[in-house]
Every structure is written in structure tokens, then in C-alpha cells.
């Protein structure tokens, strides 16, 4: 998942704390790269807990949980905004093509062996 502000991708982390921060924005989990943490007021764009107003939220399995106070609420699914920074149309197209190649290969004569 890329940084939602600039599109930078996280590389394999070294041992220790990850430099990318996590947050929830528009009920979807996002990552914020170290450069954007410095250059932007990144917490201002994040969703907040309805009870304690914390931005320390985690999105999982259709729920949003606040790590500060423990409140859990259902995730409201919203379609992504088309002009969201960080979405790379070329990368999206490349991934779609790769999936198409892999999935079309599973429908051939060797498909039954792939599921064993």
C-alpha cells in the first residue's frame, strides 16, 4: 500500500519500528511515509474516534477500533475518491494485466493440479 499523500511505497522494513505510520481516512486504512509526516499536517486528514477524538485508529474486518479508548464501530464503506493522491493508474493497469495472466492460466488443462 502506498503513502496516501505522495504515493511512495514502503520497502522491506529493517528490524525495529516501521518508519511509515498508519491511520484511517474515510474509513479506510492508509499509510503515511516519513517525508509526508514531516512536510504535512497528516493527522489533520485522518478520521477521529467518535468518543475520545483520537486518531489512533485501526481498520480491520469491517470495523474501526480506537486504540486509545477501545471503542469499536462498524466500517462505513465508501467508494474511493477518483482524484485521491497516491493512486497510480499505470500501476493499477499493470496489476490488472498481471492478475488476468495468472487467472487465465488457471483455467487451462493444468488448473486441477494448481488446486492440489
Structure description:
The protein has 116 residues and is of the alpha+beta class. The protein has one domain (21-107). The chain is 23% helix and 18% strand. It contains 3 helices and 5 strands; from the N terminus they run E-E-H-E-E-E-H-H. The protein has helices at residues 34-39, 89-105, 111-114, and strands at 21-25, 28-32, 57-60, 63-66, 72-74. A 3-stranded antiparallel sheet has the order 3-4-5, with no helix packed on it. A two-stranded antiparallel ribbon has the order 1-2. A hairpin with a 2-residue loop joins strand 3 and strand 4 (63-66). The chain is globular. The mean pLDDT is 80.
What's this entry about, in short?
By secondary structure, the chain is of the alpha+beta class. Helices cover 23% and strands 18% of the residues.
Task: Look at the helices and sheets and give the structural class.
Answer: alpha+beta
What is the residue-mean pLDDT, rounded to a whole number?
A: 80
Shape category:
globular
E-strand count: 5
Whole-number total of structural domains: 1
* Largest sheet: spatial strand order: 3-4-5
Major sheet description: 3 strands, antiparallel
How far is it from the N-terminal to the C-terminal residue, by CA? 30 Å
Tally of alpha and pi helices = 3
Low-confidence residue ranges: none
